[in-house]
Write a structure and sequence with these properties.
Elements lengths: L2 H39 L12 H5 L6 E10 L4 H17 L6 E10 L4 E9 L2 H11 L3 H11 L2 E11 L14 E9 L4 H11 L9 E9 L4 E8 L2 H11 L5 H8 L3 E11 L7
Protein name: Nipsnap homolog 2
Main location: mitochondrion
InterPro entries: Dimeric_a/b-barrel, NIPSNAP, NipSnap_domain
């Protein structure tokens, strides 16, 4: 190689070493702080155990919103009829003040599990509101007929009850067209607080294009499950937005320290149904 090429190679190598040393320095400081805290704990008087559940530390206590997410796997030949049935029934519940619940969004999965519908509901007032809605819907003949017809179209279904992270946005209706990404993370038991601490800082890096829709963690169903919901104009905008996050100081640290907390993760790209408040 020429002298010019060697100079360029050496310059590139120096930049790489500088970036690596900077990240390694941050990691070393983080490890030192943790070790220092552990060392100090040997000499500090023990305090009473915390009386609050982890969910009280992570969620918006003053609002007490409860969310339900539903995953319906539909028979391929029934998907169009299923969508039409949902569009005829779900908005009537959403718009009726008799039921203390709101339809946050309803989608079909585009990439991920095929022939799948995802619905998300919000219950203002928590578990009492959920119980009230379920009781009233059992008396609703049209809804019971909807459930009967829906059951003929499904292969399987599951749901989860969720709370929202205090540092995320509350989902509000959006104009479209948008695509939505639901990123789901199965965390290692006991790591939810640590995840919340990192993402309370990280969410600031992901607000520049208004892509953050909502962040939730499970209470009933698969436990230690986190769902992040994002909105993008299209797949190209998704790629550009995600790549831009790496230009922000500190994003690499968040990724580095949260990846070990994850046991399993997956991503769904979803298209809103016509009746979805999130378009």
């Amino acid at each position: 190689p020429s002298d010019c090429q060697l100079v360029k190679c050496d310059s590139s190598l120096q930049r790489t070493r500088f970036h690596c040393s900077r990240v390694q320095w941050r990691r070393a400081l983080h490890a030192l702080n943790r070790e220092d805290s552990w060392f100090k704990s040997l000499f500090v008087r023990k305090v009473d155990p915390r009386k609050d559940a982890h969910s009280h530390l992570l969620t918006k206590n003053e609002e007490s919103n409860l969310y339900k997410i539903q995953f319906h796997n539909v028979k391929p030949e029934c998907l169009d009829a299923y969508n039409q049935l949902c569009e005829e029934t779900l908005p009537s519940i959403h718009n009726d003040k008799y039921y203390p619940c709101e339809l946050v969004g309803t989608w079909n999965t585009w990439y991920g599990e095929q022939d799948q519908a995802v619905h998300m509901w919000r219950y203002r007032g928590g578990y009492p509101a959920l119980t009230e809605v379920m009781s009233k819907l059992r008396q609703n003949k049209e809804f019971m007929k909807y459930r009967e017809e829906r059951g003929k179209m499904l292969l399987s279904r599951r749901n989860q009850l969720l709370l929202e992270f205090s540092f995320w946005n509350e989902p509000i209706p959006r104009k479209g067209p948008n695509i939505y990404e639901l990123r789901s993370y199965q965390l290692r038991p006991g790591t939810m607080i640590e995840w919340g601490n990192y993402w309370a800082r990280a969410i600031g890096y992901r607000q520049h294009n208004s892509e953050a829709v909502g962040g939730f963690f499970s209470q009933i169903g698969n436990l230690y499950m986190v769902h992040h919901l994002w909105a993008y104009k299209d797949l190209e905008a998704r790629e550009a937005t995600r790549n831009a996050a790496w230009q922000h100081e500190g994003w690499d640290e968040v990724v580095y320290y949260t990846v070990p907390l994850i046991q399993h993760m997956d991503s769904r790209i979803m298209i809103p149904m016509k009746a979805s408040p999130l378009q």
